Request: fold
Amino acid sequence: EAIQSIGFYNGIYNIVNPGDETPENNRFNFTFEITDSIFAKEDDVNDYARPPNFRWGNGVPHDWAWGNVFFLPNGSQVEAAGISFTFKPENQGFDFEEIAGTNINVLLYKWRDTGGPNGSPNPDGVIQVDERTVVAFGDYLVTGEEMPLEYVYQPFEAVDLLTLEDNTHYIATVKFNAQFTAQDIKIGAYVGTRYGSTLQRSQIINEPRYHSVLAIIDGNDLEFDMLGFGFDITPTIRLHIRDKSVSNKSITQTLNKVELIPNPVKDIVSIQLDGQQNNLKPTQVKIFNELGQLVQIEDWPIGNNQSIQLTIDEGLPNGVYQLIIESDGVLIAREKLVKQ
Reply:
């Protein structure tokens, strides 16, 4: 029976294998959460990873992508909103200023596994270029102010197919381009849950293994390896969705410049828009936490298109937020907001 209610649940994964010499490891208890806005395969970050240097040729930039596969049974009822993830500089410690100005791409692919005979599924563990289509993307700019273990959220900025589809697999990925920075990065991961049995199961039922995917890039997008980094390493890469009624408009216009004074802020912030692109007037201000969850929403006063005073909810904990300004559901400006 399908679970419908939002909340936390306990699950049991059990394998019955006659003749198994070690049946004591065939049962696994776990907890999981049902939400209305986030797809995730983990609930924490306890490690960081990147491919070893030998995976690239000599002199080749260390470009790579990592992601998670998610299945949406009722995708037509929601829209893709963005991707959140964790990362750190390759060096020891968390000096994010060393990689300030680095662009990290987030991409959402629609995946149709057609590698088998006559377009049927193929359990080869590989997602070919012609089996996936980019449906949404965005660019996260490292500010240098990120915090250890912090999930950063990047909304999708330009989309071809914002509305998702029923009974479809999607791949939420984070892509790193080494040519734009002097230092590599590591993506956050959760290490502890082994997914080795999923490979065995995929071979038994002759269907792909749905976990994480990894691509090593040498100038062109290559195939995604569904083994990822192995059976027990899950990337902290999450897909955020929203109700279809929120907006069905593509976000493609040039964004307005916005200044927040003061920032960091304690209680009241002045929001000042510089210019007005595409003649779109601001109608709402939204604040998202580092998980991409909407934590505050306010209407923009009619007739005042340049600046307003916003009182930050006193219940919001100190931390880093994304402040979004919209015009009837269309993104027109955004800025990082720090509450302290």
